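Quick one from the shared queue. A colleague (R.T.) flagged NUDIX domain-containing protein as missing a structural entry in our internal table.

Convert sequence to structure tokens.
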Amino acid sequence: MNFCPQCGKTLTTREKDGKERILCPDEEDCGYVFWNNPTPVVAAIVEHEGEIILARNAAWPPTWYALITGFLEAGETPSEGILREIKEELNLDGEIIEFVGLYEFHRMNQLIIAYYVRASGEITLSEELVDYKRLKDFEIKPWPLGTGKAVQEWQAKRGIFNEIIDFTR
């Protein structure tokens, strides 16, 4: 973003409230500041027929599988958002069993709102997904970022302490 969305002047970078921020140079008449707030994302540990569903996005490498996630839309609660995402991505109807937690994903500037959801129906993948796999709760190896932290905490509540996958090897 190069120009102020309110007045059209060329944006500058300066310190404001202790951080470097992009802002309008016309503080008196305009005052625009790009705060770069995190985007809310909903995620679910989806249980279907006694197993956890991990899915692979079409844009990911063949070995990457993760939780069902999606952006929270305007006007919906996080619980409504994740049930919508599960329906859109897997064609399953879900019931929220437990709120798992809130997790930062700094690299993507996201705040992840995670749930444990029991789902029913027949899986049909959306065009966004190319594959899925079923695992027992103890078979999932948490990953170090984003939704992996939700998996790790969810497992720990159940007495499961798996080693985190090391992506550097």
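The mean pLDDT is 96.
The chain has two domains: 1-36, 39-157.
Added to the table.
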